[in-house]
Specification:
Blueprint (H helix, E strand, L loop, with lengths): L6 H15 L3 H8 L6 H22 L9 H19 L7 H14 L10 H18 L7 H7 L3 H25 L8 H21 L9 H21 L1
Helix pairs in contact: 1-2, 1-9, 2-10, 3-8, 3-9, 4-6, 4-8, 5-10, 6-8
């Protein structure tokens, strides 16, 4: 391992941000990865790291977990991973950073499609398009926030259950990448180091959540993630 070790402290900071806000950490992390990892490793390594981040955040707030959201979301996510995997297998990975950058800008600035309703069908639809899009963009956490807010407006509940369904999202996508033939072997040392960093970041962010007003993060977050996304879009043209 060499320059990619920079991703370990980056993973800690982004996970702490997600622990406070409930989302955004994965998007910041994946926007920092191009140039430090080869294109084919970006989304699988990111998925493993974010599984650790989200699972630990859900565990730290286990009292707020709503297990009723799991079955429908998981069914939709499995179908989405299959569809997204078919597209991922067809694209030229040289352009993957630019594709991720464009999708991040759209998720950040364009009004997101609203999943109608708030019941089990809505959760299945969310699982399908969020996991399918995640096979290409990596970070899609903000897509489900509005649906969860229809069920409960309390911030701890939303943060913990966003972490719960994103854990399912990342676990299913990891299985899909393994089936697509990605070799995780060379990346285990980095992934484990990043996993330790994001678990520590989740712990810190969980304890900071009640101390920091969420509104103070939004303008800075959008600006930072947009700059990183523009860097990703430019990379294939200057490599």
């Amino acid at each position: 391992m060499g320059a990619e070790l920079i991703l370990v402290p980056v993973a800690f900071v982004t996970s702490a941000i997600a622990g406070v806000m409930g989302l955004g950490g994965g998007m910041l992390l994946i926007a920092a990865m191009p140039g430090l990892l080869p294109a084919q490793a970006i989304i699988p390594v990111h998925a493993f790291t974010q599984l650790a981040s989200n699972a630990s955040r859900a565990a730290f707030g286990w009292r707020d977990i709503a297990w009723s959201i799991v079955p429908a979301f998981a069914l939709g996510a499995i179908a989405g991973a299959w569809g997204g995997g078919e597209i991922y297998g067809q694209i030229d990975l040289f352009w993957l950073p630019a594709i991720i950058g464009v999708l991040i800008l759209l998720i950040t600035w364009v009004p997101l499609p609203q999943v109608p309703g708030g019941g089990q069908l809505a959760l299945a639809v969310l699982g399908f398009y969020q996991t399918g899009l995640g096979m290409l963009a990596g970070a899609t956490g903000p897509l489900g926030a509005s649906l969860l807010l229809r069920r409960n407006q309390e911030r701890d509940w939303v943060v913990v259950n966003t972490a719960l369904y994103m854990s399912l999202n990342h676990a299913i996508r990891l299985a899909a990448f393994a089936m697509l033939g990605f070799s995780f072997g060379p990346w285990w040392p980095l992934m484990l180091a990043m996993a330790a960093a994001v678990i520590a970041g989740s712990w810190v962010g969980t304890r900071m959540r009640g101390l920091i007003p969420q509104r103070n993060f939004a303008p800075l977050f959008k600006t930072l993630v947009s700059v990183l996304a523009l860097r990703m879009i430019a990379m294939p043209f200057f490599s």
